[in-house]
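Figure 2 data, in text form.
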Amino acid sequence: MVGTTTNLDITWEKLPDDFVLPNDPVDNITQPLLATALSDSLQMAGYLQPNALTPTNYGICATVNGKVVVKAPDWAFIPEIRVSRSEVERSYTPQLQGDMPTLVMEFLSETEGGEYSSKPTHPPGKWFFYEQVLQVPNYVIFEPASGTLEVYRLDDTGRYQLEQPNSAGHYWVGEMNLFLGVWQGTRENRTGYWLRWWDEAESLLLWGFELAQKEHQRAERLAEQLRQAGIEPQA
């Protein structure tokens, strides 16, 4: 499949089987924890359809001016893939294999990763690739150490513009019908800043262990009510 933008010849082709993908390790242990947390609450709340994809540090591909470009965002949301999972084990090519990502995220660390690079020549910078090649509607840059969150949205001119949060500090992601924001607390023995989702009514989407805790507390309250009524709860 073929698409065009200014001075760019973009094609959507399957990654050659012999193409050597970058095998760089993630910068630190925090990045996969953040990514897993984002997918967890979406899954628990029923926001992940069977063919949705939430890849982490996983190659998203395009062929630009005859050269293959692969970028691996720290987290992405792809509403639907239209091929089998086995066909996207190594990488994913939008348009050819399914939807364009609705949102891509980069988590900042001490290692410079080119998250703001608009370099247009091969290999293009991440910013340029997401904005001009993939044209992803939402680009998120998060610094876990400070909790600084930047949300950029593609405007009518095809450029990213910095969004402003609402009064609760949340950013509306219309394509997902969800708010995104920063939350401070503990998960998996890590205490710090996390990215979390809120629904349209700005109710927090809970993680799996939070839902289990909530259910346990509900059962405990019910058992106590039964005991007060002189009824011994069933085991």
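Caption note: The longest strand covers residues 178-187.
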